[in-house]
Design goal:
homodimer, about 180 residues, alpha+beta, Nucleoside Triphosphate Pyrophosphohydrolase, 3-stranded antiparallel beta sheet
Chain lengths: ~180, ~180
Amino acid sequence: MTFGELARWERGSERVLVSTKILDLRSVRFRNPAKEIEKDFVVIHAPDWVNVVALTPGNHLVLVRQFRFGANAFSLEIPGGMIEKGEDPVTAGTRELLEETGFGGGVASLIGSVQPNPAIQDNRCHFVLVDGAVPTGPLHWDSDEEIETSTAPVADVLAWARSGKITHSLTIAALTFLEGIRRI
Amino acid sequence: MTFGELARWERGSERVLVSTKILDLRSVRFRNPAKEIEKDFVVIHAPDWVNVVALTPGNHLVLVRQFRFGANAFSLEIPGGMIEKGEDPVTAGTRELLEETGFGGGVASLIGSVQPNPAIQDNRCHFVLVDGAVPTGPLHWDSDEEIETSTAPVADVLAWARSGKITHSLTIAALTFLEGIRRI
């Protein structure tokens, strides 16, 4: 494989089309010097996200089930959320895990990062492993959150992904990184 | 695991905040009958997408590298794109594969579907396997596309995902489905 022949587009000025609490929609001017063309592209600007692979001492994965407004349906996922300004992914991941599920403790580490959608989004999603998580504290849900927590063997979760019971692409990608560090 | 205790939100009226060629940003009213509250949530409306797991007769995966405007960087991915009105995922996948890479032939089948982001998006991404793909035709890039095609052993691609060389979450999720039907 040879890299480097493709022309790089240069990012120019941008304007915010809509600003919301969770993301901005922007129109960004790009210029291709090789082709001598300029065009506007839509870019979703959002803070980085974190998703948490929390394993219990019995090697079960901590899952959350909640209503998701985009899909207009319930969704079974691993815990996660937006990383706040100044937070590193591990701090954000352990915070989200505790707030959403009450699970904490164990050893937390960053096991991978992805781009949810490099074509139209500028942010990354980080995957944090919390190894040895146990129920430790009270829940702190946002006002419109209502979350059901459960645990299941990782192999079952992978089977659920392949059979359509788990459909969240970031949860499925997180399993790939977990497989990279231990056999499921 | 017990399901069903969580209150379902009811989707109400919506208004389009911004409409673009590839997606609409909408504000959607949801009502929670159990809590007796109503709130507006941001939803990205987009057509379903398709990503193509194309394997050559030598069991190499077909990859594309292109500039991605969201990430403002080059990205190594599997081929894919938007499903057009009236297309089924398999038709759209074989079309995108041929347009972007010139690969065709083989046997095409749907091996899985995910939600790219159920929290804020309403669409799905379908994964189509094209088994036995070979170079067959000329390329048909969109005016702002410039795509470098390559092939690599699937195990290498998985290693690249885990080492950060492949970062596209949907490409990584697609590998999970491929692993579900054959050992990598």
